Amino acid sequence: MSVTAMLGGAPEEARPQLDSAIALARQLKTTLTGLNVLPDPTNAFMYVSGPEIVMAGATGIDAIIAAQDEAAATLRKVFDDAVTEAGPWLRAEFVRETGSVAFTGAAAATLADAFVFPRRAASSDHALNPAFEHVLMNARLPMVIAAEEAPTDGPCIIAWDGSPQAARAIRLHMPLIRAYGHAVIAQNPKKLRRDFQGALTPSPQAVAEWLQQERVDTKLVEFSGKTSAGLLEAAREHKASSIVMGAYGHSRLGEFLFGGTSRALLNDPQAPLLAIAH
After folding, report:
1. Banded pLDDT at 115 (limits 50, 70, 90)
2. The domain 2-145: what is its CATH number?
3. Quick one: fold of 156-277?
4. Same fold, 2-145 and 156-277
5. Beta strands at 156-159 and 273-277: parallel, antiparallel or unpaired
6. Spatial separation of the C-alpha atoms in residues 64 and 141, rounded to whole Å
7. Global pTM?
8. What's the chain look like in SS3?
9. What is the rounded distance in angstroms from the CA atom of residue 216 to the CA atom of residue 164?
């Protein structure tokens, strides 16, 4: 298993993504994989009868292949530079695949210790958005959204609102939470969710007791007001490495729509790593 950074889109996005992935690999004491998946160029053209059309199609495919080779080489260079700067402790591999970005990404995420996307992958116009949406919404696998700045080795902030999504995020990201060994459970008491029968879901204290059984030191904090602001303040105060949270949203007509808290954290350049699950 490995920390896997799914690389794609603008090369300048890759370095902060790789910095986040390398920090996770160090914390989890594992290897790093840079995964670059590109669509099959032959699927970009439909062939019809007539030699001129076939020739034009072949020429177009060659152009796509050349562009893909150039893009992959650029990402490989960024990857190699980041690995070299990390030092000899890091074992790393760059992997290039051809096929479905969404399905290849989900297959890789299934076995990854942590699966890392660049921050802009949540945008519908990003090259990795089909994989981002499929991994999160269809495969329902955990993922990590990279920070814009180098991650710290501080505790995890657990965004707890009593929802199934929040509980699922904790369960699926337990290897990461255990690796950090410290968690701050942050909650707005006025926004504790209730199940369909109106009964309260597990309290933050119950979550803390469970994490302590998993040998994770815990601390409970409360905040008021807007959830995203409260989580960011807790992250700054505790110099947090990450925020573990349930993702709210849905897919509509090919565009992924996040809930308000998720969008606010994604759009804040000072937010730490976001370890999310749906």
Report:
1. very high
2. 3.40.50.620
3. Rossmann fold (3.40.50)
4. yes
5. unpaired
6. 31
7. 0.90
8. CEEEEEECCCHHHHHHHHHHHHHHHHHHCCEEEEEEEECCHHHHCCCCCCHHHHHHHHHHHHHHHHHHHHHHHHHHHHHHHHHHHHCCCCCEEEEEEECCHHHHHHHHHHHCCEEEECHHHHCCCCCCHHHHHHHHHHCCCCEEECCCCCCCCCCEEEECCCCHHHHHHHHHCHHHHHHHCEEEEEECHHHCCECCCCCECCCHHHHHHHHHHCCCEEEEEECCCCHHHHHHHHHHHCCCCEEEEECCEEEECCEEEECHHHHHHHHCCCCCEEEEEC
9. 21
What are the extents of the domains in the chain? 2-145, 156-277
Please check the confidence at residue 86 and state whether its pLDDT lies above 90.
yes
97 burial (CB, 10 Å; 0-12 / 13-18 / 19+) is middle
pLDDT at 194: 59
Mean pLDDT score across all residues of the chain: 88
Position 51 scores a pLDDT of 47
Q: Which residue has the higher pLDDT, 214 or 40?
A: 214
Amino acid making up residue 173: H
Digit-coded pLDDT (tens) for 243-278: 999 987 666 544 555 677 888 898 899 999 999 998
Range 175-194 average pLDDT:
90
Gap between the Cα atoms of 70 and 64, Å rounded: 10
Q: Give the pLDDT of residue 151.
A: 86
CA 99/CA 41 separation, integer angstroms: 9
Q: Does residue 107 surpass a pLDDT of 60?
A: yes
